[in-house]
Amino acid sequence: MKTLLVAVDGSEPSLKGVSAALELSRGLGARLELVFVIPPVLLPPSTYAETIKKLEEANGAMAKDALEKAKAIVVAGGAQCDLITMHGAPAESLADSLRPNGCGASSSARKGTTRSLGCCSGARPTASCTSARSPC
């Protein structure tokens, strides 16, 4: 079975991308995987511990919210999906998750423009890149 990997960030353009991917998945008979990549927190050592913990918690909540919004679009369209949260540089994390699985296509761009989309034949992102995955 083919899998479409769709990056979401909660923005309107990314949610429109989910709708487009839903239509594409129907035509391909593919399963959807919605992914949110949490970028690393980069702070000077003097501000570490508590600040980083708070930022990581806020980023996790933002990822959950964005994925739930995207999931609602997929479920309303009568399809199923997996939810994935990755940690790292967004474009690199998405590309790295596709490469080992022999995926045929991947594109990525900055927030507010074209979303990342990969089409894989029966492949899933590698466990080393995936911190959380839950089915819709």
Describe the structure concisely:
Helix content is 40%, strand content 26%. The protein has 136 residues and is of the alpha/beta class.
Task: Write out key terms for the chains shown.
136 residues, alpha/beta, six-stranded mixed beta sheet, 6 strands, elongated, disordered C terminus
Q: Care to describe what's here?
A:
This protein has 136 residues and is α/β, with parallel strands linked by helices. Helices cover 40% and strands 26% of the residues. Strand 2, helix 2 and strand 3 form a beta-alpha-beta unit. The longest helix has 28 residues, at 49-76.
Helix-strand string: EHEHEHEEE
Rg calc: 15 Å
Strand content: 25-35%
Q: Which spans have pLDDT < 50 for at least 5 consecutive residues?
A: 104-136
Mean pLDDT: 74
| Major sheet strand order | 4-5-1-2-3-6
Span from first to last CA? Answer: 17 Å
| Overall shape | elongated
State the assembly state of the protein chains.
single chain
Summing up helix and strand content along with how strands pair, one would put the structural category as: alpha/beta
Q: Could you estimate the helical fraction of the residues in percent?
A: 25-40%
Number of helices: 3
Number of strands: 6
Biggest sheet: strands, sense, closure? 6 strands, mixed
